[in-house]
Design goal:
It is a single chain. The chain contains 7 helices and 5 strands, in the order αααββαααβαββ. It is of the alpha+beta class. It folds into 2 domains: 33 residues, no CATH class; 98 residues, no CATH class. The longest helix has 15 residues. It is globular.
């Protein structure tokens, strides 16, 4: 029988989380520490320098201009967005929202990178500000962030979308 998360009801696929009765995302929201990893398992996951592959270079996506950001959930509860996941910096597991952690930071970086360019998105921690103002309080099911709201926010933060530069 599949074990369900006590907070959101999603099926828990890994045994340590199933034993706890709560998934990793919900545990983070509830302030619960992750389950301990057995020493033997940690040792088996460690790679030597010769086994490690160099990271793939990240490509700068084409700046598409402003667009409505649409966020929702797949049937299994995983996050989906109409934003390319071009940069992996905070969360290799993907996008999230509804709190101020690594998943929302990843989403914010990729949203602004697609709209104004990665360099402008990173300058002065702009994408982190975007995360807290637009993503941290979104409901679990998601929603739409209107392009007009993003454009106004960018202006308030001294960013020219046309130039993709920050004028602070």
């Amino acid at each position: 029988m599949a074990v369900q998360c006590i907070r959101c009801g999603r099926t828990l696929k890994t045994q340590p989380w199933a034993n706890m009765g709560v998934g990793s995302v919900c545990a983070g929201r509830l302030g619960i520490s992750p389950p301990p990893t057995p020493k033997a398992e940690r040792a088996s996951k460690q790679l030597t320098l010769s086994q490690m592959k160099p990271p793939k270079p990240q490509k700068q996506p084409k700046i598409r201009g402003l667009f409505d950001v649409k966020l929702g959930r797949n049937a299994d509860g995983t996050a989906k967005a109409n934003v390319p996941h071009a940069f992996v910096r905070h969360s290799p597991d993907g996008f999230e929202w509804g709190y101020g952690g690594s998943g929302p930071a990843e989403l914010a970086l990729n949203i602004l990178s697609a709209m104004i360019g990665k360099e402008s998105a990173e300058k002065g921690g702009l994408y982190q500000k975007f995360k807290f103002e637009f993503l941290a309080d979104l409901p679990f099911d998601g929603g739409t962030i209107k392009a007009a709201d993003i454009e106004e926010w960018l202006k308030q933060n001294g960013v020219s979308r046309e130039e993709g530069t920050n004028h602070e």
